[in-house]
Structure formats: structure tokens, C-alpha cells
């Protein structure tokens, strides 16, 4: 950085969180777009060895609502041929992209079956071979197949939010912004300050075979406001966009825990737990242990005070459930 606070665009409101970059066809420069709120206007910009340049602007697509705040996300496909953006009001928008000219074309828009109205946060990511788009809407995760001729088929519902809370701080681990990582897995934030990430372990697989694990990675500290770092595809022109053999970062092992589930959730009389090994303990919101033992089925909760409880296993797994009247 050599200069700060340099204005490159007109003094207008812009959509902040759907900005991302794509490597130019020359393998050196970078393209990126900036959308103007409440319009269909997109500014096309280029970063080269002489700095940042506004190349031009053009109208394409549908109006981007000014009230979407930080709940949007944008992504280029790993092969650089597609550009996609998402927000809860105009849903999934998909464009063809020309890495040589930086032009967008062939605009199309797809609706998402509504799980919860007026979702405020969501995200999207392409899988490594650019076949699928994964899209989250806070309480649900969907998969679109782009290899079907014509328009993509109706999205496949991969999973819905399982109700898990991070106990410190007491926040829900919703399904929000996501990123394809160098280990070929897709990591997903929670949209707030929890210390958990969700993981799509096999994103190249169709449907639930993608092996989506909720709150599978526990970070050492809270993720500030649930943000997700926005990395472009640096390996776009390489044979492998990512490397599935990666098992550690800077010598620190990647630890993805076994998926856990409480059945039923919410619960009234008895519960069963899945994904735990050995003894388990159940604690309330005050940190008091209300039950412990080796049984994983038929645990009687009928006399417990209604509220949120956490199940902890000897293997480090944690899951939450709600006891109702």
C-alpha cells in the first residue's frame, strides 16, 4: 500500500460485501466489480502493475436492494468462466465471465425455496471443478448443479441449521458466508462472533454425499463478527485449484470432529445422541452438569427445566438441544 483513502468511484452508496477478484487471462492482472446500491449498475475495475483503474460501467441484471447490508457474497468459479452473487432479496444471480475483456454476459437469476423469510445473512461458493454452487441462507444449505443442460435443476437441500449454540458467547451457529479453501473443502462461517466453522468435506459430491458437518471446526478464539476472509482463486491457471492431501497449516493439524446430532430436537421426554464416543455429560446454560453417563439413547429429560442444554463427549464433540414444555 502506497496511498490511502483514494477515491476511484463516484460518491455513491455501493454494495460492500459482494466484492471479489478474478485473475486476468494474462495471469498477472486482476479484475473485480463493484455494484451500486438500488441500481443494476456494475463498475468494472482492473488492477495492474500501475495501480487500480476504473475501466467502465454497465447495466446488467436486476436491481440490488440497498437494504441487504452485509448479507451478500460474490464468487468467481475456480475456472474463471462464471461470476455469481447472492442476497436474500434477489437470490442467486449468475453471469458468464470473459477473463480477457472483463465482460459479464448471459445473466440469469434463480430463486431459492424459502426456509425462513427475510434472512439477513447468506453466502455462496463454487466447488473445485466449478460444477456445483453451494448457497446458504442462514438456516439452510443448498446445492445447485450447473452441468445440467439449460437452467440448473431445483436446488438440493443439503441440511438445515441444527440449533447449536456457542455457549461462550451464547450465539447461534447459523450457516452464512463460505469459502473454498486450499484443502478442497468449503468452510462456512456462522454470521456472528462464535468460534465455530461448518465444513463441506467433499464438495465435488452431489447431494448429501458432499458430507456437510455443522460446527465441525472449533477455533481457539471467537471469529470476530463471524467474518469469512475473501480469497480469490490464486491457482486459477494451475492444473489443481486446490490440494485435498493438505492436513495441516503451518504444522498445526486440521481437526474436523465427527458430526453430532440430538434426536429429537427440540425435545420433550427423552433424547438420543449420535456422533459421540464413550461417556457423555449434559450441562445447562449456567455450566452445571445435569446428567452424565455412558448411555447414548433413551436419556430422560422430561423433568428438566425448559431451555438450552449442551451435550459434551469424551472425544471433544459438542451438540446442543432445546428442552420444551
List keywords for this structure.
325 residues; mainly beta; four-stranded antiparallel sheet; 0% helix; elongated
Would you summarize the structure shown here?
The protein is mainly β. Helix content is 0%, strand content 39%. It is built from no helices and 27 strands.
Identify the strand order in the major beta sheet: 1-2-3-4
Major sheet size, sense and barrel closure: 4 strands, antiparallel
Tally the helices: 0
Rg over C-alpha atoms, rounded to the nearest angstrom: 22 Å
Name the helicity range. under 10%
* Succession of helices and strands: EEEEEEEEEEEEEEEEEEEEEEEEEEE
Unreliable residue stretches = none
Structural category: mainly beta
Write the layout of secondary structure elements.
Blueprint: E1 21-23, E2 30-35, E3 41-48, E4 51-59, E5 73-76, E6 82-87, E7 91-97, E8 104-110, E9 123-126, E10 132-136, E11 140-145, E12 156-160, E13 165-166, E14 171-172, E15 178-180, E16 186-188, E17 196-200, E18 212-218, E19 248-249, E20 252-253, E21 261-263, E22 270-274, E23 280-283, E24 289-293, E25 299-300, E26 307-313, E27 318-323
Antiparallel strand pairs: 1-2, 2-3, 3-4, 5-6, 6-7, 7-8, 9-10, 10-11, 11-12, 13-14, 15-16, 16-17, 17-18, 19-20, 21-22, 22-25, 23-24, 23-26, 26-27
